[in-house]
């Protein structure tokens, strides 16, 4: 009978631990979903603005910026709909560089090293 009580107590403790951890896991998933939704919204905004002729396409911006980053590996873009700017990410010799580009003009706004 003692073994049975021990097993029941262990199962209850295990279930409580899982339930306590579920709250933080749920909030982490929720913030990940929110970030994905914002990314989708930004991408949709970029597409609409480009189709309306208000800004350049990502391909045009890449065509202008990539030749200036010789020797660096291009890791990809992100878009900020508030700033109406693309951030292109590069890596060279283990160092990451971000190049911020105005989506309307294609002009480089800033470069971090």
Q: Which sheet architecture does the biggest sheet show? A: 4 strands, antiparallel
Structural class: alpha+beta
Provide the low-confidence segments as ranges.
15-22
- Mean pLDDT rating: 77
What best-fitting shape do the alpha-carbon axes yield? elongated
The helix content is 40-55%
Radius of gyration, in Å, reads: 24 Å
Strand order of the largest sheet: 1-2-3-4
Number of extended strands? 4
Counting DSSP H or I runs of 4 or more residues, the number of helices is: 2
Could you give the distance between the termini? 67 Å
Q: Beta-sheet strand percentage?
A: 25-35%
Order of helices and strands: HHEEEE
Write up what this structure looks like:
- The chain is α+β, with helices and mostly antiparallel strands.
- The protein is built from two helices and four strands; from the N terminus they run H-H-E-E-E-E.
- It starts with a helix and ends with a strand.
- Mean pLDDT is 77; it is low at 15-22.
Feature tags:
51% helix; alpha+beta; 2 helices; single chain; 113 residues; elongated; 4-stranded antiparallel sheet
Briefly, what is this?
The protein is an alpha+beta fold and 113 residues long.
């Amino acid at each position: 009978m003692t073994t049975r009580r021990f097993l029941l107590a262990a199962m209850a403790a295990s279930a409580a631990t899982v339930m306590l951890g579920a709250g933080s896991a749920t909030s982490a998933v929720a913030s990940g979903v929110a970030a994905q939704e914002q990314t989708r919204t930004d991408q949709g905004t970029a597409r609409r603005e480009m189709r309306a002729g208000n800004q350049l396409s990502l391909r045009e911006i890449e065509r202008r910026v990539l030749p200036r980053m010789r020797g660096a590996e291009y890791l990809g873009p992100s878009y900020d709909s508030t700033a109406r700017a693309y951030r292109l990410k590069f890596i060279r010799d283990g160092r990451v560089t971000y190049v911020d580009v105005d989506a309307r003009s294609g002009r480089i706004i800033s470069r971090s090293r």
